[in-house]
Design goal:
Layout: E1 2-5, E2 17-23, E3 26-27, E4 31-33, E5 44-47, E6 58-65, E7 74-82, E8 89-98, E9 108-115, E10 118-119, E11 123-132, E12 144-150, E13 153-154, E14 158-159, E15 174-183, E16 188-195, E17 204-213, E18 218-228, E19 238-242, E20 254-263, E21 272-279, E22 287-289, E23 303-311, E24 316-324, E25 337-347, E26 353-363, E27 372-375, E28 378-380, H1 383-388, E29 392-400, E30 414-415, E31 418-419, E32 422-423, E33 427-428, E34 442-450
Antiparallel strand pairs: 1-5, 1-7, 2-3, 2-4, 2-6, 6-9, 7-8, 8-9, 9-10, 11-15, 11-17, 12-13, 12-14, 12-16, 16-19, 17-18, 20-23, 20-25, 21-22, 21-24, 24-27, 25-26, 26-28, 29-34, 30-33, 31-32
Length: 457
């Protein structure tokens, strides 16, 4: 990673710098860039090694500074990422201040990835319309924030500050906010809304939020109908809402799988090949590919594509591959082998892709009891599939405080739960009229959020 600081007066910084990267295959967590002694000074480029998840090709980068230190501002020129394994280069251009006083007056910026002089994302503007409910005490005096989530990542924190209404978020009012010059998030799937609980009447009952992508001329609806209040409902001031535009389908019963088989240079075959797919929900029937002189498959260095109708298997975990002799073929005494290099399976309804890096010689046999089993190497979950998981659920969080002397606390305690589908955001663990987190005690809390998938941390 090479970072260029601009040649302007006061361009260097002492602030802490944080980076989040987004790519086709996901995003990283926010990472702090190591400052060391003389990094990020005026008219200077600094190069250092970073190890990150393999999410390339990259789509955008978010840089944030904390605005602390004797020089709290920074003029960021550009950033270059070079993959040390492949040599691939990705450039990110900014050329402006990260400052509360200068330039765009922000401490956060987003930069579009540029690969071979082509921008990897499109630019757009968003209009956010917020409807406060028409019930007693629905309005709020608190500061409200949102994060918009879509197929191209998230927007970062957006403060809902300037509305046409001088007094924002009043009962039965509609407030509109504009966010120009943003990188497009594509099709939207989730919205996080929260407030800072400040003001005389901070509790808020939110009816719904509409987010319009002005470039696409498409509006995404988020139905809310709940309290964000420490004194009403379940006491939570952070909520996640699924996009109502995205239809949640019933569980699939049948589907079609596309199977792409790459034959290596270690051996081709004129014989038949059979596969059985093993999913988390079901196992497929046998899929037999019959070779013939008219329709020849599995030549050296070639790729063959087939389609296979099956019951829905769920996430595919493994597959069995056999190399079967045709009944009319004479098999010589020397062992014949077929070199299967890779197999890629795409579930056609949702578009989930499963990669198998086989690179194996499979001997020709007359019976089906001889086969090879391959575990899935890599899975790419489609946006359409992820949307199906975004349904509201309740999680029970059970916290046990230790028995050590002084183990209990009077502090406010917060938790963030991370899963395959995202995270909960920062949630306070709170109950009315209870002394929590005492020595040797067990406390139970319920958090309502959108399904997180497999929990990670």
């Amino acid at each position: 990673m090479t970072v260029w600081t601009g040649d302007v007066v006061g361009g260097g910084t002492d602030s802490n710098i944080f980076m989040t990267l987004y790519g086709i295959n996901g995003s990283t967590e926010e990472m702090q860039l190591d400052k060391k002694k003389a990094r990020f000074e005026r008219e200077q480029n600094d190069t250092f090694i970073m190890e990150i998840l393999d999410i390339a090709p990259f789509t955008k980068m978010r840089i944030r500074i904390d605005g602390l230190g004797s020089r709290p501002e920074w003029f960021l020129e550009r950033i270059l990422l070079k993959n040390m394994n492949t040599g691939d280069l990705t450039m990110f251009y900014y050329g402006d201040w990260l400052s509360q006083r200068k330039g765009k007056k922000t401490l956060v910026c987003e930069m579009c990835a540029v690969i071979d002089e082509e921008e990897m994302m499109e630019w757009t503007s968003y209009t956010v319309a917020v409807k406060t409910s028409d019930i007693l005490g629905a309005g709020t005096d608190a500061n409200v924030f949102i994060i918009i989530f879509g197929e191209n990542g998230d927007s970062g924190t957006l403060a809902l500050k300037q509305s046409a209404n001088w007094n924002k978020f009043e009962r039965n009012n509609m407030d509109t906010f504009n966010f120009p010059d943003m990188l497009s998030l594509g099709h939207l799937c989730k919205l996080r809304v929260w407030h800072d609980n400040k003001g005389i009447f901070p509790g808020w009952h939110l009816s719904y939020v509409d987010v319009k992508d002005n470039s696409r001329d498409e509006t995404f609806h988020f139905q809310c109908d709940c309290w964000l209040s420490k004194s009403e409902g379940d006491g939570q001031t952070v909520r996640d809402f699924a996009c109502a535009n995205n239809k949640i389908h019933d569980e699939l019963e049948e589907t079609t799988y596309e199977i792409v088989i790459e034959t290596g240079n270690g051996g081709e075959t004129r014989e038949n090949v059979w596969l059985i797919l093993e999913g988390r929900k079901n196992r497929s029937k046998e899929f037999l590919v019959e070779n013939s002189s008219r329709q020849r498959a599995f030549r050296k260095g070639t790729t063959d594509t087939f389609e296979f109708d099956s019951i829905y298997l769920g996430d595919i975990a493994s597959l069995c591959v056999g190399h079967l002799a045709r009944e009319d073929r004479f098999i010589p005494k020397r062992e014949l082998v077929w070199h299967v290099k890779t197999i890629t399976i795409t579930e056609m309804e949702y578009g989930n892709v499963y990669f198998f890096n086989c690179d194996c010689l499979i001997p020709l046999k007359r019976k089906r009891k001889y086969f090879k089993v391959f575990e899935v190497t890599k899975t790419t979950e489609s946006f359409a599939s992820k949307v199906q998981s975004l349904v509201p659920v309740k999680y029970e969080v059970i916290v046990t405080t230790g028995y050590e002397p002084g183990a209990g606390t009077d502090a406010n305690v917060f938790v963030t739960i991370f899963g395959a589908n995202g995270d909960t955001g920062k949630r306070e663990l709170k109950q009315k009229m209870r002394n929590l987190f005492e020595r040797g005690s067990t406390d139970r809390f319920f958090l309502e959020t959108l399904e997180l998938g497999e929990l990670r941390k």
